[in-house]
Amino acid sequence: MANPSDEFRLTSSNIHISHEGRLPRQYTDEGQGAKRSISPPLEWYNLPQGTKSLALIVQDIDAAKDPTGPTVPFTNWVVVNIPPILKGLPEGFSGKEEEVGSDYAGIKEGNNDLKVPGWRVPKLPSHGHRLEFKLYALDDELHLGNKVTKEKVLEAIEGHVLGEAVFIAIC
């Protein structure tokens, strides 16, 4: 039986199980000033052998585009071509990949469902929504052109996923 500490996993130092996994307000549109809509720090462990790049998709899995309609996940963040030498993304990484340094140079942020690149958690009509953070370990880099979307990523990774790591935050 595999040791759970050896599993490919994704976590955030600012989203604690002891606080019911709540996403702090500074990571949403409900934050204030400079402490508003900044991407949370993420860390990952135990990448599958052969990982050449990572892709991250974050979505509100309780969203409804129409309040009377069905639940349709809202894409909050898409990040591709994360090099496997990295152990995480720092807080506030979104929109600053060039500033962070050379190890981050090839990373590309895709468009969220607001049709803009980067991290975005809009004001929610009600609290208790679940944000799913899903990190894919891939056997190759993705070549998706300038406009990267969740749909393009999911299509491109088919047959290239070595592992998935997921965690849920409540907002």
From TrEMBL:
Residues 1-40 are annotated as: Disordered. SUPFAM superfamilies: PEBP-like. NCBIfam families: YbhB/YbcL family Raf kinase inhibitor-like protein. This is PEBP (Phosphatidylethanolamine-binding protein) family protein. It comes from the Eukaryota. Gene3D superfamilies: PEBP-like (3.90.280.10). InterPro entries: PEBP, PEBP-like_sf, YbhB_YbcL/LppC-like.
